[in-house]
Amino acid sequence: MAEQGSFEAEQRFNDRWEQFKIEHKREYDPEEDERRKEIYRETVEMVEAHNAKFDKGLTTYKMGINFFADMTADERAKYTGLRIPQPN
Predict the structure, then answer these.
(1) CATH class for domain 2-80?
(2) Does the CA dihedral 52-58-63-69 come out positive or negative?
(3) Closest alpha carbon to 46 in 82, 84, 81, 73
(4) 75: which of 24, 28, 71, 87 fits an S-S bond (Cβ 3.0–4.6 Å)?
(5) Where are the alpha helices (DSSP H) in 1-88?
(6) Distance between terminal CA atoms of the chain?
(7) Could you tell me the pTM of the whole model?
């Protein structure tokens, strides 16, 4: 029965990924799609873990999934123009 639950959870995740791509007009070739899906998965897991802490009163803000959810940290920094000075 655990296999059924994990299959259903994976299907729900895949549905969320497909919806994200539609909403944010993402189109990838199959290899890139798998790479981006894993980045998205890591982002979703991080957001869900953070929001579980929020629900317990351990943090003061909630997070959500947005346009940047399938981008790496470097890509987000380039997109937003964020530059962190390197120590000398």
Answers:
(1) mainly alpha
(2) negative
(3) 73
(4) 71
(5) 2-23, 30-55, 73-80
(6) 56
(7) 0.84
71: Cβ–Cβ under 8 A, 6 or more apart, which residues?
A: 39, 79
DSSP letter for 60, please.
Answer: S
* Amino acid at residue number 28: Y
Domain spans of the chain, in order of start:
2-80
Residue 58's SS3 state is coil
Distance separating alpha carbons of residues 11 and 37, to the nearest angstrom: 13
Using DSSP's 3-state secondary structure scheme, residue 62 falls into: coil
Other CB atoms within 10 Å distance of the CB of residue 55 = 10
Distances (CA, A) of 5 to 1, 2, 10, 68: 7, 5, 9, 29
Type of residue found at 62: K
Which residue is associated with the tokens 């959870």?
9
